[in-house]
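2024-03-11 09:14:02 INFO receiving multi-entity request
2024-03-11 09:14:02 INFO entity count = two
2024-03-11 09:14:03 INFO echoing inputs for audit
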Amino acid sequence: DAGVIQSPRHEVTEMGQEVTLRCKPISGHNSLFWYRQTMMRGLELLIYFNNNVPIDDSGMPEDRFSAKMPNASFSTLKIQPSEPRDSAVYFCASSLASGFEQYFGPGTRLTVT
Amino acid sequence: DAKTTQPPSMDCAEGRAANLPCNHSTISGNEYVYWYRQIHSQGPQYIIHGLKNNETNEMASLIITEDRKSSTLILPHATLRDTAVYYCIVRVEGTYKYIFGTGTRLKVLA
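2024-03-11 09:21:47 INFO inference complete, emitting structure
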């Protein structure tokens, strides 16, 4: 199994631009999580999907952030417009079901200038 | 939310056992203790979890005190590749949420 796949691995963009991060969960996993990690705030849960349905998006910082999961094998996290304070590493994780151990992808390092 | 307390950093000699403590005095009866680690620039990696009994797998052992207020992760023969930040997490009861704290930065010394 290839594990959780994220793309791109690195993204550098200018303030105001739209950014789309992509995630392919492990096949057969029905729970998907998006996290953000910064030095100041550590690892924070942004949103959680179960069976492709968003269950809890209370961690999404503001309306500039949106996430979708059109099918069981693909999810996106979009930031529009991006701001320098969005610079962070964004991780996607999946699990067999909620409550089971989560498997994290390698992350996308986002830099907004 | 159940909270965990870990020492910020620890050193361990290569080949020796690394014992990483965690305090979770407010844990409730049905909450599991999970351990993850994050090697520099990588995503967190699941290590082990437990409820009441001690657990062992190919990576580590988890010792949970009888009152469940604390636990210890044991890496029996630490290697340089075990240098990482280790997170002790109590899953919020009835939810899928992990609350990642600041963890323990373990440095394995040659």
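2024-03-11 09:21:48 INFO post-check: The mean pLDDT of chain A is 94.
2024-03-11 09:21:48 INFO post-check: The first strand of chain A starts at residue 5 and ends at 7.
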